[in-house]
Design goal:
Shape: elongated
Number of helices: 11
Structural class: alpha/beta
Strand content: 5-15%
Number of strands: 4
Oligomer: single chain
Distance between the termini: 23 Å
Amino acid sequence: MADMDAFRAEIARWAAGGASATAAELAADLGLRTAVLLEGPSDLAAVEELAAREDRDLTAEGVAVVSMGGAMSVGRFAGLLGPPGLGLRLTGLCDAREEPFYDRGWQRAGAVRDFQVCVADLEDEMIRALGPERVEEVIRAEDELRPWQTFLAQPAQHGRPREQQLRRFLSTRKGRKIRYGSLLVRALDDVRPPAPLADLLAGL
């Protein structure tokens, strides 16, 4: 029985230029109908966490959520997973500055334009949805108050808006951005998820 991790690994190898004899077979075994193209693993963590929060099993629904390792790879992934390749419906999420890459990727794949765009990035959207105070509560709960205070003491951070400081802090340590991709979604409680993320899930 195929699993999603095996499919993602196969697609990554294929996108890197390797031959793939099993991608179509794995997609068929999983009953895939849709591929969600995301820039990186922190976006993947957030999407999967929100799906779990809504009691949705995306794999069972025939949805493959794929981290591409950067928006510049979108043309390659769209071609492999979309109409020219496996024939899956394409959707996704990107930062505003990367929107042109997504537009070109969708056009080259002959796919209907169907992806959500964040104003800056998903972390920015989450921080604005939750508010800086709630995000700082999450940082405190993760026992990272001291690193956060040390970060704030850096001269480069003086005078910057709190939202920008938080966004930068999440990227200062390897793995932190991915971990907080899930943690910030869990912190939403009764707060509506950011529109790009909520609309992405609603459209699957």
